[in-house]
Structure formats: C-alpha cells, structure tokens
Amino acid sequence: MDGTDPNNATASTQQEGIDYGADSIRVLEGIEGIRHRPAMYIGSVGPRGLHHMVYEVVDNSVDEALAGYCTYCKVVIRKDNSILVEDNGRGIPAEPHPVYKTSALEVILTRLHSGAKFDTKAYKVSGGLHGVGLAVVNALSSELIVEVVRKGKFYRQVYRQGKKATEVEVKPAPPDRHRGTTIIFKPDPTIFDTTVFDFDTIAARLRELAYLTPNLKFELIDERTDPPTSVTYHYEGGIIQFVKDLNAHKPPLIEGEEHIFYVKGQEDDVLVEIALTWNGGYAETILGFVNNINTSEGGTHISGFKGALTRTMNDYGRERGYLKQKDENLKGEFFREGLIAIISVKVPDPQFEGQTKTRLGNSEVEGIVSRVFANPFEEWLDKHPQFAKAVFEKSLNAKKAQEAARKAKELIRKSSTRVSLPGKLVVSRETDPEKRELFLVEGQSAGGTAVKARDSQFQEILFLRGKVLNVEKAGLSKALDNQEIRNIISAIGTGINEDFDINKCRYGKIIILTDADVDGAHITTLLLTLFYRFMRPLIEHGKVFVARPPLYKVTVKGKVPEEVMGGRRYVYLRSDQEKDDLLRKLKEAGVPEKNIEIQRYKGLGEMNADQLEETAMRPGTRVIEQLHILDPVKTDETFSILMGDDVAARKHFIFTEVFKEEDSEEESIFWDESINKQEIDDEILEEELEEDMDIESNSNSERSIELSDEEFNENIIEGEE
C-alpha cells in the first residue's frame, strides 16, 4: 500500500490543478531567457564564461577577416574591467531591417540566431556561438555600447542589461575612420561570479587566433596597469609558424634538420589546412580547429587526419621495406610519438556537440580531410627520405617499447582494486569517489605528519619516495617501469593516455603537498609533468590541486593589535614579502620586537600535525590552488622548456619569467621567495641535476615507514612488487 486514499482522489486532483496549470507555464524569450539561464549560452558564470564573452565579440571580427574585409582587431581591458573590441571590418548593418522594421543593429543585439552568419552570401564560414554571440553578450552586460562606421555614417546605441537605453544615434562618419565596429561592454556583476578579466587568458586566445588568421593583426591593451600593458600578435606564416613555435624547444628528430609538411585544399566548400612535423620527444601534440574554434575534444576532422596518417605511413613503410610482408601494420599511436600537428578546417555548416564547440560531428568532414591530406603527405615523404626514415625508425622503436609498457599497464590494471595497490596508501572510510581526496606527499617525515593531520573519513595519503621520473625525457615504457609513477596511476585508477577514463577516477581532488623550497618546487613540477603528459583530463576536469603550506608562523606575545592580526595571536605566511609587510605593520602598531616570535618551516616534517592540518589539509582553513590549462600552447612550451633537454632555454625562462619583476604582487603557486638566483643556478640548472631527474630515486627498494600512529598501521596497504 502507498498510503493514498482513493476517496480523496478528486480533492487531490483539485489541489494539483491549483498548484500546477497552464498559468504556471512561463515562456522566457530572447534577452530574458539568456539572463535566466546564462550558462546555457556561455558555459558557466565563472571565469570561463566571463572570458567567453570577449571571444564572442572578437569572433565577429575574425569572421570579417575570413571573408576578406578585416585586417585589424584591437581589444582593450579598461580600468573599470569593461572591454572594448574595435575592428576595421565592414561594420554591423544599422539600416532598418525589412522584416522587423527596426534597426538591423537592434535586431542583431536583441534576437537570438540573428545575423549575416546564416546567409552564405555574406559569410562562407563563421565562428561565433551558433549566431547568438552579440545578443548573449548584450544580455549579460550591465551596459553595452555599440558604435558603427559604415557607408559614410556613424551609428551609436546604448543598451543596459540587454535592453536598449537609447535610440540609434546617426551622424556623419569621422574623417579619420572609414568603416568598422566598436563594442564596449561591462559584464553584469549580478550574473557573474567575478567580473575581473585575466590578461593572460585573453592573450592566449588572441595569439591562437593570430596563427589561424594570418591576415588579421591583433592588439591587446590592459589599461589597469601603469603604464598600460600591450602586446601585438600577427603571424603571416599562419599554422606553419604555429608548428615551428610549438616545436621550438623540443629535441630534434635529426640534428640540424626541421622539415614541416603543409597542405591546403578544398572540397565541397570545406577548406582544409594541415601543418605537421616530428621531434625527438615522446609527447603527441595535435591541435584541431573548426572555423578557428579550438575543438579540444576532437571530432571528425581529427579522426580523418589520424586515419590517413596511419594508412599512409604503413603504406610508405612497406614500399621502402621498413615493414616486411609478414609484419602487421603499426598502430597509429606509434606514428604519433613526437608528432606536432595543426589541423584547421573551415566548414560552412558545422555541427558541434554542445554549445561550447568542443567536438565536430560532421561525418563528411572525415573523408574530406583524409583525401586532402593523404597524397600530398605521401609526396612529401618521398621528397624527404632521411627524415621519413627517422620517423619510421622512431615508430618502430615505439612499438618495441610498447611490449614493456603493456606489461606495466597490465600490472596497473590488476592493481585497479584498492586492496592490491602497489606501494603504500593510507585509505579513508569514504565510499563516494567525489568526496575523497588524495594527497601526494614526498618523504617519510612529511608523510607521517600528513597521516596524523588528515581527516580519516575522506582524506587519503600516498607516500612518494624521492623525486619521480621526469616523463618529459622518458618514453612510456620507462615511465611505467618507475614504481612511484605506477603507484600514482594505480591509486588514481583512471589509466593513462588512450586508456584514460575519467569516470574511473577514485578522487574528487588530487592534491600535491610538498615543501615550499627548491626541491618541493621540483617535485611538484615533475608530478604536474606526469599529469599533463599522461593524464591531462585530470587537469581539464579540475581535479588537480597544489597545496601551499606556509613558510612562516608569526606569533605575537602580550597585547595583540586587532587591526593587524585580525583577532588572532598567530598567523601563517607564505612568502618573505608577506612576512616583511606584517613586521612593518606590527612595528607601526607599537609591538616590541621581543614580543614577536618567527618560526620558519624548512619542510613539512618540521610542522606538527595540528599546524599541517590547519594550513594545508582542513577544508575552510587550508590554502590549495586548482590547476587550469588556460593556454595549451604556452603550457606545452613551458613544460618543454622546464623539463626538456635545453638547459640554456630553462635558465633563460627562469631568470626572465620567475624573476622578471622583483616587486610583482603575483606569486608562484609553489615558490619560496627567499630562494635567490644563485640557489636556482646551483640546484636546478646544473647538468648533475639534469641527470638526477632521470634517476629512479630509491624506486626499486622498499623502505619501511615506522609511525606511532595506530591509525596508520590499521589503514596502510602493503603493495606487492
């Protein structure tokens, strides 16, 4: 029985009619609908959605460039965090619309799926958010101003929260400007979690667009700095230059030689551009773009390219005798080791999966890309036989290494259950993976403290012994032969590379916890390199964090100045600058120097469990930073420089990037400001350290961990070698 009285059915129905009827149905149209559900149109109301607003406006300038009418686009981050985007395109039409009997400018800014992008006579191809770009930006802005110079006239109109605040103002165009559009918008703070734009995030997108649109020059200005920060991007070499720059800090496949393949072709109004090369490294870098939109999840253009590459390379290998008749064809993954490729397609009617355009679904594009690419690529291989031979030999070596890697993978798969995990893991009682947290802690002392400091309900500790292998300079088989790396992969549970499955992740957060010194920074970078090269979706899904334990604890004895200490007798500080600022304020508040106690932590092992819990482990009081890939190109370049073979490039990067502004307020996520340049020179840049980065530090020897904490002994899992 469900407890329902049949005799009361009529009364129940009457009550339902009062609560839910036709008058309860609310139709949200146009601007109102966008403001009610903004994430449907821009992905989120966080930083990602905020910056997407800029991209939507810029996409209109790019569309004009693709059509051959725009050569310049300027983006300005103004002091009040509003955005100005100006171009020299044809200008948004502002004449009366023949159907809606109002200015075409107003139609474009207030109606979804409006604009010339739906007329193939105006644009053969376009980016933008399915034609909703400017209407969405307008709806989600507290104020938007549009200015158009077109056919000798100047048009101006103001909108607030998506609704027009003024009629279209019309007057003669200024003599110094013949055509173009200027959009000024300020995101609505009642919609977005933050309205502060990040210069580097916008710069990354503009740099990417500059490679893909070689006839368009971008200028980015940040007026919030004094003096204003300004950068210009213009790459006449297009995606060939893109490949060259991506390959700049990679080890060469053949010393002194760099051969870049390039093809541009068209079929059925689909334009295909491909550039590629190989290097001596192990990472695969394939970037796909559809109408200048970065399709991070791939699609038919990528599958068409990969299939054609694999077939052509296998055919070439058999013709040249690298593969015998009895040999099986090599898998595509072998040919893609060390590959850098850019695939850019322009599709008149692209079908994207989802509003954020992360995967192309047009089935016809796969065959078009394959046909445009295959024959020219085969001819290119014939013209560069030595380079082609080196590529094939590299692929054969990758096949040989796969067997060792396969055995290691099988061992990891067998260890997919928590009870057979290799190494030592302190488990929790939590059964929901999203609520669990994994702390990666190096060293016996620090690990022991972390075990005592953790919340055993949901926090787990994985001990790391020494520095893990630098996977930037090691192949997959060597990486999987490293016990520490295998322990990490087994604990997380997702697998790696092609076998990666985010749904199998055992944790909602994976937190790197190391000392705040040179060695700690080095270990953190090694772990991030592992995640970026083999388990990148962990970062893309926001699961990777870096804990920021303090460098100092400052305690005030006697009378505590409320305005300085915030009502606390002690505070934790994470840099020398913070310490110096606090000491200055305490002195100004009249606190005697003898009443100030400063404790500097040389490592996590010097902290007691309560201190580590408060500063790095307890939600609400800890300081951890989530990792995001804002600029894939720059991120890849940074890992290549920091972890690759080029010592000179690494030294230059550290001295120009880390120490570029001694008084900068920006802090590294794991940088000890007390470290000076000489320590960097001595401890990181020497060749001895480069060799050490390839050494499996104590990875094959079992080291006992003796702790007095009974909980550790009850929960630790002894792995099997």
Q: Top keywords for this entry?
A:
25 helices, 721 residues, 3 domains, seven-stranded mixed beta sheet, Heat Shock Protein 90, nine-stranded mixed beta sheet, Ribosomal Protein S5, domain 2, disordered N terminus, alpha+beta, Rossmann fold, disordered C terminus
Report on this model:
By secondary structure, this protein is α+β, with helices and mostly antiparallel strands. The protein has 3 domains: 32-233, Histidine kinase-like ATPase, C-terminal domain (Heat Shock Protein 90, 2-Layer Sandwich); 238-404, Ribosomal Protein S5, domain 2 (2-Layer Sandwich), CATH 3.30.230.10; 423-549 and 625-718, Rossmann fold. The strands form 4 sheets. Strands 1, 2, 3, 4, 5, 6, 7, 8 and 9 form a 9-stranded mixed sheet that branches. Strands 23-19-18-16-17-15-24 form a 7-stranded mixed sheet. The chain is globular and about 75 Å long.
Structure classification: alpha+beta
Quantity of strands, as a count? 24
The proportion of residues forming helix, as a percent range, comes to 25-40%
CATH C-level of the largest domain: Alpha Beta
The number of helical elements comes to 25
Low-confidence stretches: 1-18, 20-28, 416-420, 661-721
